[in-house]
Amino acid sequence: MSDNTTLNPGSGGNVVASDDISGVHHQRVKLTLGAEGVSDGDVSDANPMPVKGPLNNAQLRAAPIDVAGPVTDAQMRAAPVPVALDVSYAEDTAHISGARGALLLAVQRQTDGPTADDGDYTVMQLDESGRLKVSVQPCAYPDTTGDITAVQPTATTPVAGGTVTCDVSRASNVMVFCTNTFAGVNVVFEGSLEPTGDNGWFAIQALRTNANTVESSTGVLSSPAVYAWELSVNALARLRVRCTARTSGTQSWRFKLGTYATEPIPAAQVSATQPVSLTALPALAASTARTGFVAGAGIWFDDTSVALAAGASFTGTSRDVTVTATATAMANAASYPKEFRVSAESDQSGTLWVEYSRDNTNWRRMRSQATAAVTGGGQAAEIIVRPSWRYLRAGFTNGATLQARFTLNSLLIAA
Prior knowledge:
By secondary structure, the protein is mostly beta strands. Among the domains are: 124 residues, Sandwich (Jelly Rolls); 116 residues, Sandwich (Jelly Rolls), CATH 2.60.120. It is built from 2 helices and 28 strands. The strands form 8 sheets. Strands 7-18-9-15-13-14 form a 6-stranded antiparallel β-sheet, with no helix packed on it. Strands 19-28-22-26-25 form a 5-stranded antiparallel β-sheet, with no helix packed on it. A hairpin with a 5-residue loop joins strand 13 and strand 14. It starts with a strand and ends with a strand. 17% of the residues are buried.
């Protein structure tokens, strides 16, 4: 049987839409919107059926929706099934075993860097060992400002406009600076261990920023200083400036708090000039005793200036470096030389030498030095020894050429 039904087929009636199901027609009906006596048009994609709602959060949470289970994977995927699960907790809620919560995620990053743009939500970062990365930097505090407009003569009697006070309990150092128009103003720097009150103020020192100057007051100023003051406020609760003299105007102060650890008034430890007091030791008198004598003299000998023939030698005078008066005493303060210096100069090469003797008869050559050319022409040699035998002498052996000039000198130095 075909769909649709013709009403009053004998006289050409209207055709009504119907659906033929096994010989039975089911009438098709269109929904039209509108209140009584009003047509708002047929239901369509452009004119959908209105549904009251949507449900708000309270309505959705009013009662959980029972789910008969178990629910198969196909059923779960067919349509989302609402499940009541509240994992939020009120403040100070006690812990109970089996409590549920949301997993807090973090990202492991071996290299530092942002995980989101400015203003976006982001996650915490862990290092390669699973430790939480944090950025540690000094705290920042707002500046404290105030005006000096009056004199406060005493520390414990408040005067309006006589002080500018700052809480420094969390600061390590403070930089202070004054501005504005004023004349004849002097303030003192004071600190307190008390967080409040008018008692317990005491003088503290400040360091000028442009010089190695430590002071407990600004001195009388008639215009803003070209420098600021730095103060160490470790363990202080409050810092203030108190006006002790003023002619006119308003002196405006600004306190900048820092949290870096500082030394207390570094300038007090290193200043431009430090007085030094010395006490002179008494002079030691000259003595013939071997112990503790003072001898700064020396004896110079002009040994020779006679030119030598080819291959010839010069032997100097024997020098007794003890000149003992007795076995345990010196004949004079300058008679025990500590050093023997000898030098020779010639126009020809040769060898300078020093000989030692214990008895002034048998000599042993202990040092020798060949001459070397010197700038400007000529040959020179020098020997310096510390005497260890009683007698010594200097000498020179010329080379294979006749000398045109020759000089040999020696010096015994006592100390």
